[in-house]
TrEMBL record:
Entry's Gene Ontology molecular function annotations: nucleotidyltransferase activity; sulfotransferase activity; thiosulfate-cyanide sulfurtransferase activity; ubiquitin-like modifier activating enzyme activity
Top-level taxonomy: Bacteria, Pseudomonadati, Bacteroidota, Cytophagia, Cytophagales
Membrane-traversing stretches: 40-66
A Pfam match: ThiF
Domain THIF-type NAD/FAD binding fold: 18-224
GO cellular component term of the entry, any: cytosol
Protein name: UBA/THIF-type NAD/FAD binding protein
Gene3D superfamilies given in the database record: NAD(P)-binding Rossmann-like Domain
PANTHER family attached to this UniProt entry: ADENYLYLTRANSFERASE AND SULFURTRANSFERASE MOCS3 (PTHR10953:SF102), UBIQUITIN-ACTIVATING ENZYME E1 (PTHR10953)
């Protein structure tokens, strides 16, 4: 009797955890099942990556990869509110993974705490997932991830912030005619060093990454459970 009762309790807990989103018209148990079988890699566990990870873990995405090799700094804390003052200097990926496992033990969390380079390791890393979310904070990584996803045919959700505005977009996801938008359609070339200031130089409002990160998570989760692309390119902005 005990194994059956234990399984019943687990099923009941899962039903309760996701019950509110399953009430949304067009979602339901089948969409939840698709999310539970999905594998998503989030590049960057900072201002943008953290809210993406929290939202996808809460929604029940089956496997989440956390890719970041940075450590927490004091200047991160006004916008990366998962981290604590006592954790300054500690690795972001490991801290984020621990938080996510506590948030939702049903989600499998994989940590990738090394930098990305254009080699076979990157190919192997990306192809272990079905959707990539880029929350990185530098152009070199953005173009590397975009170009790799284009070559591998992997859908990519990209987001960026600047001072008090930001945007999110779903790329490399074919429409009904088979066309898939590319980051280089929007920004063809890598900016010259110093041409575009980063957050340390230009500043950023603390609330902004959470807004854009959740927009990115919405684009990612919808593409996973809908399984198709409605728009040739969907560019969502906030200001």
């Amino acid at each position: 009797m005990w194994p059956f009762y234990h399984r019943f309790q687990e099923d009941k807990m899962e039903d309760n955890r996701y019950s509110r989103q399953q009430l949304v018209p067009g979602f339901g148990p089948e969409a939840q099942k698709k999310l539970s079988q999905s594998r998503v890699l989030v590049v960057g566990a900072g201002g943008l990556g953290l809210p993406v990870l929290l939202a996808l873990a809460g929604a029940g995405v089956g496997t989440l990869g956390v890719c970041d090799f940075d450590t927490v700094s004091l200047s991160n804390l006004h916008r990366q509110t998962v981290f604590k003052t006592a954790e300054v200097g500690q690795p972001k990926a490991e801290l984020a993974a621990a938080y996510l496992r506590a948030l939702n033990p049903e989600v499998r969390i994989q940590v990738h705490a090394s930098g990305l380079k254009p080699d076979e390791h990157l190919r192997d890393l990306l192809t272990d997932y079905e959707l990539i979310v880029d929350g990185s904070d530098n152009f070199e990584t953005r173009y590397l991830v975009n170009d790799s996803c284009a070559l591998l045919g992997l859908p990519l959700v990209f987001g960026a912030i600047f001072r008090d505005s930001g945007h999110a977009v779903l790329l490399h996801h074919p429409d009904a005619q088979g066309y898939a938008a590319n980051y280089r359609d929007l920004f063809p070339n890598l900016p010259a060093p110093g041409e575009v200031p980063n957050c340390a130089e230009a500043g950023v409002l603390g609330v902004l990454p959470g807004i854009i990160g959740n927009m990115m998570a919405a684009e990612a989760s919808r593409s996973l459970w809908e399984g198709h692309c409605i728009y040739t390119i969907r560019f969502v902005c906030f200001r």
